């Protein structure tokens, strides 16, 4: 389940700034890293007067990775409009949205009591590893606890939310006075999790607890495949767990990819050049955005470096 969060949602990354994670141990200042070249995959869909680039992002990266150059930067510079999964609200608004959706009803039992007995000690151990009391998240929904356990360790592992692809693209778009469009809102992205049935939320949290110690190696593997421009390998890594839970895969992957392909198809009717950047897992595998574009008779061609 952790793979879902690391791959596909911009909104939950705001958890890094939330009061609920204030207990987390401060990350050491990262040492200056030598710049390493990366060539992530990028595609193009075009007709006589419209060009749409498709770029898969990773929401959080380690400093020192050079990817916003060559084919990616060329496509970005040619584009008049930049499209992201969502346009992130200011920090105060985002925190308010998350707290509004993340708090459990006052009548609910404590979160720990919702967990299976066998998961309670590992859950407490994961919180302790983050410097958080065992009851720190007891008044929150299980999906929020799962997100916290997925994201809070990242800074300690050397990942910098300021180095994420969306942040770089957003800053460049603003500097270039490009039009910016969000495919979804922050409310929508949080709503995908908040509206999950209670039992599915608990299943999500239990899976995240079980994978907690693997978050570093998992993200390292995903970033390596992304950097190497290996969408098939990246998709297999990112979407494997989602395929095991079809009800979540349908909600978080398939249905969103269908909607985004519909949006791109409709946008092809308007002249111009557009740079679309979404989580890299959405551009890989049999349920990819490109696969659904094909149903609109649109072919996404890989751009070679």
Automatic annotation (TrEMBL):
Keyword Cell inner membrane recorded: no
One Pfam family, short name: TraB_PrgY_gumN
Work out whether the entry's keyword set contains Signal.
yes
Keywords (A to Z) from UniProt: Signal
Signal peptide positions on this chain: 1-26
Q: Give the matching InterPro entries.
A: TraB/PrgY/GumN_fam, YbaP-like
| Name this protein carries in UniProt | Uncharacterized protein YbaP (TraB family)
Q: Which organism is it from?
A: Sphingomonas kyeonggiensis
Q: What is the lineage of its organism?
A: Bacteria, Pseudomonadati, Pseudomonadota, Alphaproteobacteria, Sphingomonadales
């Amino acid at each position: 389940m952790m793979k879902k969060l690391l791959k596909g949602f911009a909104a939950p990354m705001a958890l890094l700034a939330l009061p609920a994670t204030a207990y987390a141990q401060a990350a050491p200042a990262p040492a200056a890293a030598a710049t390493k070249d990366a060539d992530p995959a990028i595609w193009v869909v075009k007709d006589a007067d419209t060009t749409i680039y498709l770029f898969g992002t990773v929401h959080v990266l380690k400093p020192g990775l050079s990817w916003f150059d060559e084919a990616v930067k060329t496509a970005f510079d040619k584009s008049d409009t930049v499209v992201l999964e969502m346009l992130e609200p200011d920090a105060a608004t985002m925190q308010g949205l998350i707290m509004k959706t993340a708090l459990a009803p006052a009548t609910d039992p404590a979160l720990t009591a919702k967990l299976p007995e066998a998961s309670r000690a590992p859950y407490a151990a994961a919180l302790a590893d983050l410097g958080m009391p065992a009851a720190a998240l007891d008044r929150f929904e299980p999906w929020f606890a799962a997100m916290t356990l997925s994201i809070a360790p990242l800074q300690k592992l050397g990942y910098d939310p300021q180095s994420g692809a969306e942040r770089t693209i957003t800053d460049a778009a603003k500097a270039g006075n490009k039009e910016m469009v969000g495919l979804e809102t922050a409310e929508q992205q949080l709503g995908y999790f908040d509206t999950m049935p209670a039992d599915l939320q608990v299943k999500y949290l239990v899976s995240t607890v079980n994978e907690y110690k693997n978050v570093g190696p998992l993200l390292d593997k995903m970033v390596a495949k992304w950097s190497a421009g290996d969408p098939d390998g990246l998709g297999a890594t990112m979407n494997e767990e989602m395929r095991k839970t079809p009800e979540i895969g349908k909600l978080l992957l398939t249905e969103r990819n269908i909607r985004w392909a519909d949006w791109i198809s409709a946008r092809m009717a308007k002249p111009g050049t557009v740079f679309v950047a979404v989580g890299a897992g959405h551009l890989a595998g049999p349920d990819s955005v490109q696969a659904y574009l094909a149903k609109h008779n649109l072919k996404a061609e890989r751009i070679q470096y």
